[in-house]
Amino acid sequence: MFPKGTKRKFSDSGEEPVPSGDPGPVVSSAAAARTLSSSYSLQRQSLLDMSLIKLQLCHMLVEPNLCRSVLIANTVRQIQEEMTQDGTWQIMTQALAAAQCPADRLVATEVLCRQTDAAAQAGQSPKPFSVVGLEDGYRSEEAVMEGDVESEVNMSTLSPVSPQLTSASYLAGPFGMGPCWEEEEEECDEDEEEDSEECVSEGEDGDRDHLTADSRTGEQVFGTFEIKHPAPPPDPALEELFSDVDPSYYDLDTVLTGMQSAPKMGPYDLLESLSSHGPTALSSSSSCRSDLNELDHIMEIIVGS
Amino acid sequence: VSAGVAGGNDFQWCFSQVKGAIDEDVAEADIISTVEFNYSGELLATGDKGGRVVIFQHEQESKNRPHLRGEYNVYSTFQSHEPEFDYLKSLEIEEKINKIRWLPQQNAAHFLLSTNDKTIKLWKISERDKRAEGYNLKDEDGRLRDPFRITSLRVPVLMPMDLMVEASPRRIFANAHTYHINSISVNSDHETYLSADDLRINLWHLEITDRSFNIVDIKPANMEELTEVITAAECHPHQCNVFVYSSSKGTIRLCDMRAAALCDRHSKFFEEPEDPSSRSFFSEIISSISDVKFSHSGRYMMTRDYLSVKVWDLNMENRPVETYQVHEYLRSKLCSLYENDCIFDKFECCWNGSDSAIMTGSYNNFFRMFDRNTRRDITLEASRESSKPRATLKPRKVSTGGKRKKDEISVDSLDFNKKILHTAWHPKDNVIAVAATNNLYIFQDKIN
User: Fold this and answer.
1) Interface contact B223, partner A, CB < 8 A
2) A12 vs B91, B214, B333: nearest CB
3) Residue A5, by phi and psi: left (phi above 0), alpha (psi -120 to 50) or beta?
4) Cα gap A274→A257, rounded to integer Å
5) Domain assignment of residue A100, yes or no
6) Shortest Cα–Cα distance, B339 to chain A (Å)
7) More confident residue, B197 or A218
8) Composition bias, kind Acidic residues: at what positions (chain A) (predicted)?
9) ipTM strictly over 0.95?
10) Nearest CA in chain A to B96
11) pLDDT tens digit sequence for A90-109
């Protein structure tokens, strides 16, 4: 989404930069404001990318930390609200919609699963840009400490690896390390293959959970993990097949408590699902997890909570 | 001149002991996840990620050197929790011990509650130092004696034996929490206790394992609307009807169990108004409270958020009475700390026995103490370098920009993998236990 090679000066405060008048007198205040605000936009966008990746990379084996997930989700919501207010949200989602290639738009469930699988294997999903971009951004860029121009701090030292710990035990975020990232992809590929088989068998039963055409407003940040259609005519046969599906299965539990059977989606796929526009969307991941949701419900009843 | 800080007088903290392997290669299972003194301070319990509990006992001071406090030595070690697999969700349930809480001692045995994410267990730790000998029907090997050979009766005699400490699970409180348990707290009635997970709080009776009362439930009907979770909970030390719970939005709710069966409506609501000038995308995350602790007096409570510790007067809801900055120099690093997930670290905090000082951990194996009376604070480090017996700990300082003085450490040299999340203060004496990854440090003051 951003031209590659753009050098970003990443100030770490995350605060709204106030034009302080520090830029030299040569720079007009308007230009300074524009420069600052575009850097702020870049920072905000990076933060959004990071947050979306964090939400997707749930630990496969152990149930992820709900508190952490909720805090990240709230951060995403906050960014989304602010971007909606200044109009950048709509611009971004339109750009994303336009950028999607039609080959992703497949209607039949099993084909969808297979296609997602293929897409993931093609390496489309965790957009390497976000990872690499962030890595580059945080490793190689230098941050200027607030109010102190002389001492520039190298941000790469902020997430240091203690000499005693090996890279395997490096505690940084999972997306920060190349090997971990590949591991995640491999795991997901395996899961996706299993899922595509599941998808095929369950699709015929018709008890797949798919989003119906009810529109989700922008406030509902956590719709589902959908792959959005820009504007295909809905297949009436398919609609009929899924018309009795109860969308209430798409609760936050699904989203936050692990996507182990979910195909890997790029952060912008998730972003698309957050937007309010667009017609019917067919889901892949949540459909494969619907049975787990049911079991979750049953378990809660048994536990009596 | 008082070089030391905590406690008000001239205290100087010095190294006493360190427990745990010196190996640079730390096994994940050995990472300490909770530390707790018992009510008398005689026992010190630790739990680790491998589900084990190790209890240390304070040995009496030697008569030769009464100015030195005795040492803590291993008293009992047992496997409290095992890893489990939730087959319905295809997820592992970690055996990591999240919290240990002691029960007040009522007889010769000691009782503690230990919990992982899903199950709480009541353990009885008892000593056996005598053995009965001289049974009539069986001999010393345990073989049955031939009844025809018994010509006289004798009374079995208790003979001393080597001390054996046994830990046995007396109660298992399971299947009451859908979400991960973050807190347990024994009530002042010594009969009940509460357990809190991300969305619910349950009240148990120590004798009853098949039932618990749900007293707080903040799960929304539609999980998509979930924006806030419970982060910690504690019973009031004296009023058995009062408890508090903190949230990920930086609020604390005090509830009275006499008011209603379901305490969804709080009696008091503590929240400090946000400072609009420091608002950022990370404001909410750093306001999330990671720990809440009542003072021993019951008049105050203390909360820990990412950058500070706050002391609240229970009678004043709109702001804390004291705020202490733990590591304000991290405020400009929040984005990096968000990236590497350190911003989600949950630090605990603790009071000293007289409520005059508080302690909490930081990064680089630093921990901080604040004296509430003198308002002085000190930063100390738990490291092998300063681990000579009775060596006084040197105060540490982080340089916040500009010139770095000698002996100061710059923010970027801090090791964020060395975090002190768990600390405990002896209930009566100035002895502290600090967990640094897989090592347990014990420090004490030089005086007395």
Assistant:
1) yes
2) B333
3) left
4) 18
5) yes
6) 6
7) B197
8) 181-206
9) no
10) A62
11) 888 888 788 765 544 433 33
